Amino acid sequence: MKRQYCIAAILTAVAALMTGSAVTDNTPRALIFNANHVDEVYRVLLKRDTLLLESIIDVIKQKGIQDGNVWITAGSVQECTYHYVTSTALRAANEYKTVKGAFEILNGGGMIAAAEPHIHITLSSRDKSAFGGHLEKGCRVLYLAEVTIVKYAGPQLARRNNADGISLLQPR
């Protein structure tokens, strides 16, 4: 009996966290969207001097992907522009940075909503620790990049700015 009570208490606490009912300002902290299923999976090899984000966007357009995921699983870049947040204020402040040299892609990924990818990337080099942020256009492949793009079927998502200018996922 005690075990059932503990499991029920845990499930109730998780549900409260997911719906935001445990939050004092009554703002949900997690939004769960309707289920999707994988429709198609594309594995993409990008060769030297290819533009990373621009190529991913091309595949998204060619394959008519409105909703999905992107994973950059391996590769290297010779130049990359990214941005990252620099403030904890309600309205985000971003700094843009371009790096040039030999950098390994440790990982990258993000979601596609309304045919627009939102991808973050982590890079490293011999003389720097890991760094990165939101992938921007102009990131050029050094030797190769291996990318997986998943197309979902089902309810679609879009991004809309909230009152603070933060682009958030919303049902389409």
What's the arrangement of secondary structure elements?
Elements: H1 2-19, E1 37-47, H2 52-62, E2 67-85, E3 94-113, E4 116-125, E5 128-135, E6 140-153, E7 157-161, E8 167-171
Antiparallel strand pairs: 1-6, 2-3, 2-5, 2-6, 3-4, 4-5, 7-8
Largest sheet: 6 strands, antiparallel
Please indicate the percent range of residues in DSSP E strands (runs of 2 or more). Answer: over 45%
Structural class based on helices, strands and sheet pairing: alpha+beta
CATH superfamily placement of the largest domain: Hypothetical protein, similar to alpha- acetolactate decarboxylase, domain 2
Order of helices and strands: HEHEEEEEEE
Distance between the termini: 44 Å
Radius of gyration: 19 Å
User: pLDDT below 50 for ≥5 consecutive residues: which ranges?
Assistant: 1-6, 17-23
Total E-strand runs: 8
Q: Please tell me what the overall shape is.
A: globular
Task: Specify the number of helices.
Answer: 2
Oligomer: single chain
Q: Give the second-level CATH assignment, the architecture of the largest domain.
A: 2-Layer Sandwich
CATH structural fold name of the largest domain: 60s Ribosomal Protein L30, Chain: A
Helix content: 10-25%
Number of domains: 2
Taking all residues together, what is the mean pLDDT?
87
Q: In the CATH hierarchy, what is the class of the largest domain?
A: Alpha Beta
